[in-house]
Amino acid sequence: MVKWADICLPKDRGGLGIPASRRMNVALMLRWVWQILQGDGGLWLQLIKAKYLQGRPLLACSLATGSQFWKSIQAIKNDIRLGLQISVGNWVGTQFRLDPWLDGEPLRLRFPMLFAICGDPAALVSTIAREDRWHVAFRRPLGPAEVHEWEVLQQLVPLPVLTGRDFVSWGLSPLGEFSVSSTYFALCRVPVLPWLSPLWKAPLPLKIKIFVWQLLRDCLPSGTEVLKRHGPGNDICPLCHVPETGTHILFSCVAAQALW
Ligand SMILES: [Zn+2]
């Protein structure tokens, strides 16, 4: 009575913790993306740089043709932004609006009105930074609200200082090092539900925990849930003649109240 996708969520996020093979595969592929961003690789990285990147940063490279490995990298590379943090460097490979280089948040989220009318959403910091200010092209003149947002951006976003190459770190682990497990959990895109923790820690048989888990999700095979899925019977409790839900069976039914 629970969707397979939900069953495959981690236990602390509302699922049963069954590994999702596709999500795990993406997490493992993102390790390659991480290594490319860090410049951490041998001959294979030289090959990628020479054949595909040709001086462009990976996240700004839109070349979609090539080997199966390259196409897989291109398909999932943007998920690296779930945990990517970029520190001050020479900004050569940093995208002004898309990369999370300002306090770990992309500018497209902090300044959505400006992002909606910008000329080149994927522009690099190094191409629009000048000595005195940001030189950003917009598709039309700015309105009053956009002018205000632009002023805030100019005050808030520091001009780059050339100090060396860009430095990337992983915001989802304490040491800043990429890990497949933290990526796997981030790819769930579902927040942690702290109130579920006592259930899974309780000293109860697993089948009882799963029963309570179904109750909490309102997915017990009660009359109303069976009928929703076009199952047999009606949704009426034979004792009380009211709709039979999970909470009714366990708490408000006359039979249940007699037990409690
Ligand atoms: Zn009843």
From TrEMBL:
<feature type="domain" description="Reverse transcriptase zinc-binding">
    <location>
        <begin position="178"/>
        <end position="260"/>
    </location>
</feature>
<dbReference type="InterPro" id="IPR026960">
    <property type="entry name" value="RVT-Znf"/>
</dbReference>
<dbReference type="Pfam" id="PF13966">
    <property type="entry name" value="zf-RVT"/>
</dbReference>
<protein>
    <recommendedName>
        <fullName>Reverse transcriptase zinc-binding domain-containing protein</fullName>
    </recommendedName>
</protein>
